[in-house]
User: Which sequence fits this backbone?
């Protein structure tokens, strides 16, 4: 699959500089950026759901020092 996007001259220069800095093609730079963003948003959503479950379950946090003491650390 391929697609095209319109960039201003400044945006294109920035993208080309980024690609050159990482020794990758412009296409690869956009693909990596897209999938990193998708993964980041997915991770945030999973974290939000896990936190909501944690709160709904009545769990409470406690100081790490207590955990270390229990574990004799």
Assistant:
């Amino acid at each position: 699959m391929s697609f095209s996007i319109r960039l201003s001259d400044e945006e294109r220069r920035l993208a080309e500089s980024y690609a050159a800095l990482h020794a990758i093609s412009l296409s690869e730079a956009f693909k990596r950026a897209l999938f990193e963003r998708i993964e980041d948003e997915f991770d945030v959503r999973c974290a939000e759901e896990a936190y909501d479950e944690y709160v709904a379950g009545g769990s409470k946090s406690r100081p790490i020092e207590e955990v270390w003491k229990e574990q004799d650390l």
Summary: The chain has three helices and no strands. Residues 47 and 53 are 10 Å apart (CA to CA).
